[in-house]
User: What shape does this take?
Amino acid sequence: MTLEAAGFWGLAAVLLASSLAVVLTRNLFHSVLYLAVALVATGGVFLLLDAAFLFGVQLLLYAGGVVTIVVFAIMLTERLVGERIRQTSRSLVPGALLAVAVLGSVCVFLRRASLPVKRPPLAGALTAALGEALVTRYVMAFELLAVLFVAALLGALYFARTDD
Amino acid sequence: MGLRMYVLLAAAVFAIGLFGVTTRRNAVGILLGIELMLNAVNINFVAFARYNASVAGMVFALFTIAITVAEIAVGLAIVIAIFRVRKTVDADHLDLLKG
Assistant: This one.
């Protein structure tokens, strides 16, 4: 077994187990911690795919930013101790059927599709190419992203403000 | 390790996230399921980009990550605002817009 295969199966096991824990744990706070594990494992998958820069972004923005925001939201909306942090799930069987149906149909398409098995060699440094593409070809989308962030910031402030 | 395995892994994570979104009652729990689904999409973007030697998929993954962070910030602000008014984040009780 090659190093990449070993890494892939290890990360896949961690990712699937922690994702299942996110949707099945009753304690919402534990759900968020498992989500952090799942996000870091996803970053590991990016690393396997030679996208070291995306691994960094994943750690900083997702595992760092999102988890912190969600933890704050839970602490503001639920009491950390007591019954209110428990959460229940409803319609488990239809939800599981839907998820299995989606997964099954993707598998059917995957059997038919002819996907590449070998990776093409990298032409140069991937991070450098990514940065260059971001400020040349995709510069418009990149600038619009800044506008989106300002809008999101103002929106979040507007919703979260007190009335007085 | 072919592209197929990466796509399969992403599909499995996506299905788990979908299960979470449809079964959770708590609004924050639903948001966590959406996070999982978006995360699965990112795996696909990066895997397809790497196996096609194209940087476009990775740029798209970068944008997806950034937009997700903005989305979760606004989503949680809405959850907190709803909690202030209704004192609950149970999605079944949030039927204010029902006709």
